[in-house]
Amino acid sequence: MTMAFISDVHGNYEALRAVFSVLDCMNIAEVYCLGDVVGYYSQVNECCEELRGRGIPCVMGNHDWYMVGGGACPRSRSVNKCLKYQRSIITKENMEWLKGFPLQRQVGEVHMVHGGWSDPIDEYLSPSEEYFAEIGGSVFVSGHTHVQIVCKYGRNTYCNPGSVGQPRDNDARAAFALYDGTFSLHRVAYNMKKVFELMERAGFDDYYYGCLKTGAKNLRRL
Fold this sequence. Notes:
By secondary structure, this protein is of the alpha/beta class. It has 7 helices and 9 strands; from the N terminus they run E-H-E-H-H-H-H-E-E-H-E-E-E-E-E-H.
């Protein structure tokens, strides 16, 4: 059976909806989310409810962790401003759902975390043959970097499906991956204009969403 992997949705429901439209057309029923459902964009409840309604298994991302723990990102005031807004609107039911995310999952031969296997929540993984030689298993999937890649190291395979909600690899389209014994990488365009309008309505200027236009690595103005 083909499995789909999504990650780093970050409150971007327009991107998430576009990805599921493609997956539904492909009849892909087994979908896993590698964390960071929340953070950055304004449709946090819509994203949570879409994933909850579909029964999508998730792992805990760093933004999810900040949200449920009431903590802050040590690297970015912009992230914390977005989280503050999301905490003001997220429903109790969605918050409780986020709290239930495990740090990692294993389904068959596939090992899943958000960050890496040294720090499941917040490791910015630099994949290498040496890194995966130290870990039991053969198929590894994680998100967090927002950069879509597949790497093969002998018997080990690593995939980052990229980001649904905020790509950082100079491709603005929402990203996901499929696995049927071999990984394939996919992109889909979505309606960014609605994201921009909703962010402005929530009180955020284009600094917070300008990077969506090009898939830039950092937040920037249009």
